[in-house]
Amino acid sequence: MTPRPRICVLQVPLFDPARALGGAEVMAVELVRALTAVGQVTVLHGVAEDADRGPRRFTGLAAEVHGAFPLDDYVREHGHIRPRLDARAAGNVEEADIIVTVERSLDLPSRAARVVTLGGVGYPHTLEVLAHRAWDTLVVPSQFVADQVRARAPHARGVTVVANGVDTDLFRPSDKARASTDHLRLLVASRPTWDKGLLRVFDLARDLQGLGLRPRVVCFTQPGGYGPNDFLPKATRAGAGLDLEILPWRTRDLMPDAYRSAHLTLCLGDAEEGFGLVAAESVATGTPVLATPAGFLRDMLPPEHGLVLVEPDASAPDLVTAARCATRLGPDACRALGRPYVARHYGLSRTRAELARVVQLAAG
Question: Which among 108, 189, 234, 343 is most buried, taking Cβ atoms within 10 Å?
Answer without folding.
Answer: 189
